[in-house]
C-alpha cells in the first residue's frame, strides 16, 4: 500500500485518481496486517485496490465526476466498498470517471479527462476510465467499476486490462450512485481473469438493501464463494484441450461496416486461438444489435432524468451562491452543477417520459429491450455456450476527437449495450493491438454468457490468457 501510494503521488500523467487520503489507506493497511498476524485474514488481505468515484465512501469524498458533488462526503459506505474491505482489500482512493458515469471517453468528468497509459494522446474509454487506467498504469492491483452500457468492458478494452460486468442483480447497487437503475451493475477491473475471480467473489452477494439484488443464482446462493466455486468447476470440467466442446457463437451483426479492420483482425486471431484451445466456432445472429443503441439511449436517459432529480440543492450537493427564490435556487444550482452531457441526458429523458411521447419512445424502447433479451435466450444454450466478438468498433481514439459529436460517441457503444439491456454477464479480455498508427492501442475480446454464467466466462478467459 505504501509503494502504491508513492506511485500515485508521483504520477502526473494520467489523472486517474480524484481523491487520495494516505492516513485512511494506511489505517486499512494496518488493519490488514493485524488480521494477517492474527491468522484470520480475508482472501484479499493487503491487496491495494481503488474505487470508481460513484461508490460512496465514509470519510473519503465521493464526486461521481461531477461539480454537483465536488465536496460531498457520504455518511455510509457502499455495500461493495464494505465487502471488499471485509475481505481484506486496502483502498488507495477514488477514481476519475465520466460525470455520473455518462460517457465513453472519460472526457465528461468535471475534473479533467483521464489519459490512456498506452498512449497519452488517446482516451482511456469510459465511463470507468480512471479504473482501467489505474490498473493499466500499475497504480492499483484492481479497481471497482460500473457498467450501465459498457463502462467496465469498453475502458478495459481500450486500456488493455481485463474486466467483467456480472449478471444484473448479483452485485449490490446500495451506495452506488444511480444512473440507469435497471441497467447499472458493478464489477471489477484487474490484470487477469484470475484476479477478477477473487475480486468479483468478494464484491458480489445478496443485499436486502438493494431491491433488485438476487438471493439465488439458479441453484447457487448469491454469496461470497459462488464465483470461486463456479470458476473452479468450469476449470475442472476442461479436458485435455482446455475448451474442448465449448461452442463459441460469433454474431454476424458484430462484424459489419462500422468495425475497424485492425480490430477485426485482432478479434479473428483471438477466435482462432479459442479454436486452437478446443472450442468450436458457430455463426449466430443477434438481429436487433443496431436497435440496442436507440433503445438504450431512451431507457438510460429516462431513468437518469428520474434519478438525477434528487440533486435539488436542498438536501445535498452544489448550491448556487445567489438566487431569487427556491425554484430559482434549484434551477441555478443544477445549471451550474451539471455538465453539458448530463444536462443533455436529463432533457432527453424528460422528453421521452413526457405525456404524448411516452408511448412513442419509452414504451417502444421497452418492447425492443424485451426482444433483445429474447435474442440472447434463443441462441445461448441451444446454438452456443458463450458469445464472442469485439467490445469496441475501434481502438482508443484521440482526446477531443469525438467530444463535439455526441451521436458518434453513442454509436461506439454498439457491441456493449445489448448485454445491459438483457442483464446477462459480459467481459473484456485483452487480445492484441491495432495496426499502423494504432500499434500501441489495445484491443479487447468480448465474451458474453447466459445469466449467472460468470464462472464459465472467467474460466474461458483464464484458459485464453
Ligand atoms: N457509454 C454509455 C453511456 O454513455 C455507457 C456508460 C456506462 O456504462 N456507464 O451511457
Give the gist of this structure.
The protein has 465 residues and is of the alpha/beta class. The chain is built from 15 helices and 13 strands.
Descriptive account of the structure:
The structure is a single chain. The chain has 465 residues and is an alpha/beta fold. It has a single domain, classed as Amidase signature (AS) domain (Amidase signature (AS) enzymes, Alpha-Beta Complex). Helices cover 37% and strands 13% of the residues. The strands form two sheets. An eleven-stranded mixed sheet has the order 1-3-2-4-6-5-12-13-11-9-10, with helices on both faces. A two-stranded antiparallel ribbon has the order 7-8. The mean pLDDT is 97. It binds glutamine. The site of glutamine has 13 residues, from loops.
Q: State the CATH architecture.
A: Alpha-Beta Complex
What order do the strands of the largest sheet run in, or round the barrel if closed? Answer: 1-3-2-4-6-5-12-13-11-9-10
The CATH superfamily bears the name Amidase signature (AS) domain
What distance separates the N and C termini?
Answer: 27 Å
Q: Into how many domains do the coordinates divide?
A: 1
Give start-end ranges of low-pLDDT stretches.
none
Q: Which secondary-structure class do the elements indicate?
A: alpha/beta
CATH fold-level label: Amidase signature (AS) enzymes
Bound molecules: glutamine
Summed up, the helix count is: 15
Radius of gyration: 21 Å
* CATH class designation: Alpha Beta
Percent of sequence in beta strands: 5-15%
